[in-house]
From TrEMBL:
Part of the binding-protein-dependent transport system for phosphate; probably responsible for the translocation of the substrate across the membrane. PANTHER family: PHOSPHATE TRANSPORT SYSTEM PERMEASE PROTEIN PST, PHOSPHATE TRANSPORT SYSTEM PERMEASE PROTEIN PSTC. It is a multi-pass membrane protein. The keyword Cell membrane applies. This is Phosphate transport system permease protein. Its main location: membrane. It comes from Pseudonocardia oceani. Residues 1-21 are annotated as: Disordered. Belongs to the binding-protein-dependent transport system permease family. CysTW subfamily. The lineage of its organism: Bacteria, Bacillati, Actinomycetota, Actinomycetes, Pseudonocardiales.
């Protein structure tokens, strides 16, 4: 009995390279171009600040108007910038985390959604409005508190006094900055809290944990890096704020930890906004050089925040 063997049809081998459609190629090109453009703009800004700021950095003390040359000129401004941003960060971070936890784990869904929208809208308010609110409302309201702090806690350098009678102090500037960065920290923390694996939360509740114990054991450890990164992003915003700080305080070239007195250290951004219109010659280069210092500090803060985000450890288990 003979059997006929049919010839085998060759199976098509899959192509090693996926087929790229024209739309995919166009989108990839646009995305790559946008990324390269951002890098070019960043490099251009850095090059401009460096070229225009070097003459002031290398100038003699007589030309800059300070006995320690550029370092003595920029140090009080850098100190005021870091002090105001630190006050804002210390005040805003606990409130932002609390609001994020309330929206993500306590509030009813409909109310939480509306409250989330309201928090995000805080970031859309112009800084000029915050500055006017700080000068007309917050500053006068803090005068009695500042006087009490000076009378009872004056032994602490932060409240050494004498307290300002107008309320336009570094403390008020820090509180206004805290309100401004509150939606940034809250939004980042809220999104991280919502990504906490459901199995981890249910397991903690099944073991008899209360809602707060579940948050403490499952949600906060998972969102720790998100809180840190959100705080660093908010710090970057506070470091570069200009108009709101310029409206509240009229600083001097001093270094003082007293945050309730009338003599305050001005920030770099506010000093540039106030002095640039009337400056000329080397004074303009000095202001640009201070902008270079602020650029470097802000870049380092945001780079650190990105580093924290990239190193966020993933929990095992289903989401």
């Amino acid at each position: 009995m003979s059997t006929t063997i049919e010839p085998e049809t060759p199976t098509p081998t899959p192509s090693s390279r996926p087929v790229r459609r024209p739309g995919d190629q166009i989108f990839a090109g646009l995305a790559t171009g946008a990324g390269v453009l951002i890098l070019l703009v960043l490099a251009g800004v850095a090059a401009f600040l460096l070229v225009e700021g070097v003459p002031a950095i290398l100038a003699s003390p007589e030309e800059v108007g300070n006995e320690r040359a550029f370092v003595g000129f920029v140090w009080p401004l850098l100190f005021g910038t870091l002090l105001s941003a630190t006050i804002a960060l210390v005040v805003a971070t606990p409130f932002a985390v609390a609001v994020a936890l309330f929206i993500s784990h306590y509030a009813p869904p409909r109310f939480a959604q509306g409250l989330g929208y309201l928090m995000d809208l805080l970031a859309a308010i112009p800084s000029l409005v915050y500055g006017l609110w700080g000068v007309t409302v917050l500053a006068p309201a803090t005068v009695p508190t500042a006087q009490w702090l000076a009378d009872n806690l004056g032994w602490i350098p932060l409240f050494a006094g004498p307290a300002s009678t107008t309320g336009r102090t570094m403390l008020v500037a820090g509180l206004v900055l805290a309100v401004m960065i509150l939606p940034i920290i809250s939004a980042v923390s809220r999104e991280v809290f919502l990504q906490t694996p459901r199995l981890h939360q249910e397991a903690a509740l099944a073991l008899g944990a209360t809602r707060w114990e579940m948050i403490k054991m499952a949600v906060l450890p998972f969102g720790r890096s998100g809180i840190i990164s959100g705080a660093m992003l908010g710090l970057g915003r506070a470091l570069g704020e200009t108009i709101a700080v310029a409206l509240i305080i009229s600083g001097l070239g001093i270094v003082s930890f007293n945050i309730i007195g009338s003599q305050n250290a001005l920030t770099i951004a506010a000093n540039i906004a106030l002095d640039f219109p009337e400056s000329s010659g080397l004074a303009v280069n000095a202001l640009i050089a201070t902008g270079l210092v602020l650029f470097v500090v802000t870049f380092l803060v945001n780079a650190f925040a990105r580093y924290i985000i990239n190193r966020r450890s993933e929990f095992s288990g289903a989401n």
